[in-house]
Amino acid sequence: MENITPPYLQPGDTIGIVAPARSITRDELQPAIRFLTSQGFLVKTAPHLYSKHYQFAGTDGERAQDLMEMIEDQSVKAILCARGGYGTVRILDLLNLRKLQHNPKWIIGYSDITFLHSLITGWFGIETLHATMPINFPDSVQGNQSTMALISALKGEALHYELKHHPLNLPGHATGVLIGGNLSILSSLSGTTSEMSYSGRILFIEDVDEYLYHIDRMIMQLKRSGKLKSIAGLIVGHFSDMKDNSEPFGSDAYEIIYSAVKEYRIPVCFGFPAGHAEPNLPLIIGRTVELKVSDEGAKVGFYRSLT
Questions:
Q1: Which H/E stretch holds residue 289?
Q2: Which of 23, 48, 62, 111 is flagged as catalytic?
């Protein structure tokens, strides 16, 4: 069964901005508003967008209310999450995401927004967009590679990436529905009702600011649970600002992942430009993707939606 593809955007459409996790200020959001406006879109900000409740962008109830208002607002064609941090998981039980099935629209973000990607694609069969967020937009209406790629994806332009060879790549060819996001969030979802199905899927992972032994522990959890054995392919994005103890772990993040998956005879692509570093290029979670890895490099292409 094919997932639901939300309608693509056209100039004049409205993009709503919410903050389901950490707080954001007006000054931090201005570059995104200027850029989106310069691209011909209208911008609607959530009522509690600039609220602050300790580290969160308002109380759990306020953040959930903001997201639901944007989902129910017929004029809003896409919902852009302002930033990640922590907090999205706290509002999941306050949301009625089934309403997106009646009025599909793109939910956009990464990092902590992995919670929404998992729930929306896994439970409701609606594609989402793993992409850059307003907290990362440059202070220029010209944007950068990440923001311009986001606009292209929202307009429905085909996503196809060709990457240079990485020495840890594992060759192969696989097709499957893309799942994943932030590794720490995926690990925290394990065993919950919000967890994605891994079997036969292409898994994407990325992470930031983690100790290397934490990365190893999370990868071993995926391995021992049978998830790595069940996937059809693996795309590895940025693993940024990794930390180590005074007694070195002995492997970097990519080497940890390679060691865990090398036995499975699946294509593995390292160095995909997505995650907590620039560029952070868009990926359609829930869309069928083709992964080809050879000695020359890797190709990642998304099948065109029939809707």
A1: strand 288-294
A2: 111
Instruction: Write out the residue range of the structural domain in which residue 29 sits.
Output: 14-154
48 is annotated as an active-site residue: no
Predicted confidence band at 304 (pLDDT cuts at 50, 70, 90)?
A: confident
108 plus 172 within the same structural domain: no
At residue 3, the pLDDT reads 85
Residue 244 confidence (pLDDT) above 60: yes
Can 111 be counted among the known catalytic residues?
yes
What pLDDT does 27 receive? 98
Q: Are residues 24 and 121 in the same domain?
A: yes
Residue 307: pLDDT over 90 = no
296 labelled catalytic: no
Query: Number of folded domains in the chain?
Result: 2
Peptide bond into 171 cis (omega under 30): no
pTM: 0.97
Q: Which residues contact 28 (CB under 8 A, 6 or more apart)?
A: 83, 134, 135
Exactly one of 206, 210, 214, 238 is catalytic; which is it?
206
113 and 49 assigned to the same domain: yes
Residue range 107-166, pLDDT digits in tens: 999 999 999 999 999 999 999 999 999 999 999 889 999 999 999 999 999 999 999 999
Average pLDDT of the chain, as a whole number: 96
Q: In this structure, are 39 and 110 located in the same domain? A: yes
Q: The CATH number of the domain where 42 resides is what?
A: 3.40.50.10740
